[in-house]
């Protein structure tokens, strides 16, 4: 898995298109393995280039108990598919919105081989990622936009991904652009003014692209806020937009 294969270019006018959420499994993926082995989950935020084929991803690991989170971290360290793991912060029952509301969580930076990911397949298939990827119970949930609105072409692209990566890919949700625009509008209505402002600025400048097109410091300078403030607004916005209880 590699979060954020690409983001829709800023300022692009899109009249037609399909928005979809995919359930994905593919071999040789450490995020799928550790969430299958343990009762904790992951949110994949963004990915940085390292050296050679290695990339470093930023993840939030969360679960019902801190013990379950610790088991996931241990499984991540022990995986043959990871190079290094840094644990940045632990939160015990912090009141947060979205997928980790009130749950123990920790921030991870994990280095791994990009060749064991599926994001390049989505990039080649002209998909645009719209939000961080959730990984639960050995399944990735990808929120994507497919430009053009041709369902036959979409089916062909997904079949190509399945074939090339020996992947199981299931369409969980599929909406037209107009319907999705209304749905996203309703979801962003839950954001505070500053959260929406920071999230839209991040999307505009390619913060969620892969590789990332702007650094956190550059984005904070653009917003005229501290890096800590920017990240706090973005994490809260991401969590609200990803709240599984909102999924239809």
TrEMBL record:
Name of the protein in question: Bacterio-opsin activator
Residue span, HTH bat-type domain: 191-242
InterPro entries: HTH_bacterioopsin, WH-like_DNA-bd_sf
One Pfam assignment: HTH_10
Alphabetic keyword roster: Transcription, Transcription regulation
């Amino acid at each position: 898995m590699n979060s954020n294969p690409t983001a829709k270019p800023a300022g692009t006018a899109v009249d037609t298109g399909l928005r979809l959420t995919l359930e994905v499994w593919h071999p040789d993926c450490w995020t799928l393995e550790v969430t299958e082995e343990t009762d904790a989950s992951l949110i994949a935020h963004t990915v940085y280039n390292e050296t050679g084929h290695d990339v470093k991803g930023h993840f939030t690991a969360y679960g019902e108990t801190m013990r379950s989170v610790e088991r996931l971290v241990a499984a991540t360290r022990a995986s043959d598919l990871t190079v290094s793991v840094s644990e940045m912060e632990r939160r015990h029952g912090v009141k947060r919105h979205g997928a980790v509301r009130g749950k123990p969580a920790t921030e991870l930076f994990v280095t791994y081989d990009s060749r064991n990911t599926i994001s390049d397949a989505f990039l080649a298939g002209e998909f645009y990622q719209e939000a961080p990827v959730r990984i639960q119970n050995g399944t990735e949930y990808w929120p994507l936009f497919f430009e053009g609105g041709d369902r036959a072409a979409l089916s062909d692209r997904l079949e190509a991904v399945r074939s090339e990566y020996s992947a199981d890919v299931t369409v969980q949700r599929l909406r037209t652009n107009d319907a999705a625009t209304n749905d996203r509008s309703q979801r962003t209505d839950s954001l505070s003014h500053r959260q929406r402002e920071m999230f839209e600025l991040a999307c505009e400048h390619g913060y969620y692209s892969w590789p990332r097109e702007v650094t956190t410091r550059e984005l904070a300078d653009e917003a005229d806020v501290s890096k800590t403030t920017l990240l706090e607004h973005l994490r809260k916005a991401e969590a609200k937009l990803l709240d599984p209880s909102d999924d239809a």
